Amino acid sequence: MINAVIMASGFARRMGENKLLLEYDGCSIIERVLKAVSKINFHQVVVVSQYKEVLALCNKYGFKYVDNKDANIGQSESIKLGILNSSKCDGYMFFVGDQPFIDDLYIDKIINTFKLDRDFIVIPRCKDVCGNPVVFPFSKKKELLALKEDEKGKTILKNSSKIKYVEVPEKMLLDIDTKVDYERIGGKL
To answer: What fold characterizes domain 2-184?
Structure first.
């Protein structure tokens, strides 16, 4: 059993506006992520955010919404809230809310790789570039809960020898951080 944790609490300072709500191909970027996740048979989906628009989308998809009142602390707060509000599981698959090309086919490949050995962290990559979503086994729960400020899961990867990689298309790893990124994929501001 794997729980999905979708982290959607960022301030999008480099974008200058809420990038999660920018439209791409008929719906917002965050909804594209939610749609992809909804196609997978997760044990539970927890969405951590500070935005009422994301809450409305969670209700639409039947996902658990967790209000991140301390988003200013950094990404570690979203990770912790996602774990602490998750039901019992074998692993946590962490998503970010700004990947418009996330693909359920490759999400499934990552999950199936994890199911082969539930002690391994499973990371998508294209050539030498790694990205999200990443699966962390339940055994890493304490380490994830010990993250501080804007520390990310990468902090744990440095000390782990049990890592597997799944090759994915480059486009799937793309996240939208700036107006240039958004315009590059055909978005119009």
So the answer is: Spore Coat Polysaccharide Biosynthesis Protein SpsA; Chain A (3.90.550)
